[in-house]
């Protein structure tokens, strides 16, 4: 589909952007989702030019290993030179909503550890105000109902993502109808709810650069 081609375009642009960074000891952080998968498949072209990767999900780790790309435990590496991952929404400040693929906790951890976060997205992810995409929140299972009630107090409409357990053994609430005009404050408010593990707002730590796939080519936006 045309959207798939835009995803390939930004994955290729990300590979070109990181190539000058690749040295024998370089660790690359790798995200989760369909756009990240195109990047993983292209990263295999550079195998041997860098040390290895840290993955933000078991699914991405498996895909990398199928290409013969080394995958390290985060605790085994000193740092991550660059993290490449998709997003469900991005605003002009490169504040993101992530978590569509239920990998938000490990994604946020890998992003936190990375020197530079490169977000790759097709143009449909670009919004002026975050919140049209339901905000994923990872929750300790026993706290699900309590957290849902607290999210309602914040103006949201939480929906349990039935049948989904995260790599960390937790559950996801997708919070609808949130007009997130103050992403940093909302991220902190949700983090303060007891039982919340992670929420999908990447605002306190936005992406450093966005490669946005459009019909007019790949646009580069810096935060
Ligand atoms: O779950 C995630 O955070 C993914 O990165 C998601 O935000 C993007 O997935 P996509 O590339 O399949 O649209």
Descriptive notes:
This protein is an alpha/beta fold. The chain is 29% helix and 25% strand. A 6-stranded mixed sheet has the order 2-1-3-6-12-13, with helices on both faces. It has a 4-stranded antiparallel sheet with strand order 8-9-7-10. Strand 4 and strand 5 form a beta hairpin. Helix 1 packs across helix 2 (34-43). The two termini are 29 Å apart. Bound molecules: D-4-phosphoerythronic acid.
Draw up the topology in text.
Blueprint: H1 2-18, E1 27-30, H2 34-43, E2 52-55, H3 58-66, E3 82-85, E4 89-90, E5 96-97, H4 104-113, E6 117-122, E7 135-139, H5 144-153, E8 157-160, E9 171-176, H6 183-191, E10 196-199, E11 201-202, E12 209-214, E13 217-222
Parallel strand pairs: 1-2, 1-3, 3-6, 6-12
Antiparallel strand pairs: 4-5, 5-11, 7-9, 7-10, 8-9, 12-13
Helix pairs in contact: 1-2
The protein binds D-4-phosphoerythronic acid.
Structural class: alpha/beta
Distance between the termini: 29 Å
Largest sheet, described in full?
A: 6 strands, mixed
Rg computed from alpha carbons, rounded to a whole number of angstroms: 17 Å
Low-confidence stretches: none
Strand order of the largest sheet: 2-1-3-6-12-13
**Content of β-strand:** 15-25%
**Element pattern in H and E:** HEHEHEEEHEEHEEHEEEE
Pfam families: Rib_5-P_isom_A
Subunit structure: Homodimer.
Catalytic activity: aldehydo-D-ribose 5-phosphate = D-ribulose 5-phosphate
Active site: 107
């Amino acid at each position: 589909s045309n959207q798939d081609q835009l995803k390939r375009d930004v994955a290729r642009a990300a590979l070109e952007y990181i190539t000058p960074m690749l040295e024998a000891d370089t660790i690359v952080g790798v995200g989760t989702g369909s756009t990240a998968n195109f990047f993983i498949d292209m990263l295999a072209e550079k195998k041997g030019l860098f040390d290895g990767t840290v993955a933000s999900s078991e699914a991405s780790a498996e895909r990398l290993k199928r290409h013969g790309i080394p995958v390290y435990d985060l605790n085994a590496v000193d740092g991550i030179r660059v993290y490449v991952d998709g997003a469900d929404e991005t605003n002009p400040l490169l504040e993101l909503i992530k978590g569509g693929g239920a990998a938000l906790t490990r994604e946020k951890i890998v992003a936190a550890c990375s020197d530079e976060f490169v977000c790759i997205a097709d143009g449909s992810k670009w919004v002026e105000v975050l919140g049209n995409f339901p905000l994923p929140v990872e929750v300790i299972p026993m706290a699900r109902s309590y957290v849902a009630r607290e999210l309602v107090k914040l103006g949201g409409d939480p929906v349990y993502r039935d049948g989904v357990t995260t790599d960390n053994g937790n559950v996801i609430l997708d919070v609808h109808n949130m007009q997130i005009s103050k992403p940093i404050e909302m991220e902190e408010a949700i983090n303060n709810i007891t039982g919340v593990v992670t929420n999908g707002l990447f605002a306190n730590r936005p992406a450093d650069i966005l490669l946005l796939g459009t019909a007019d080519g790949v646009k580069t936006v810096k935060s």
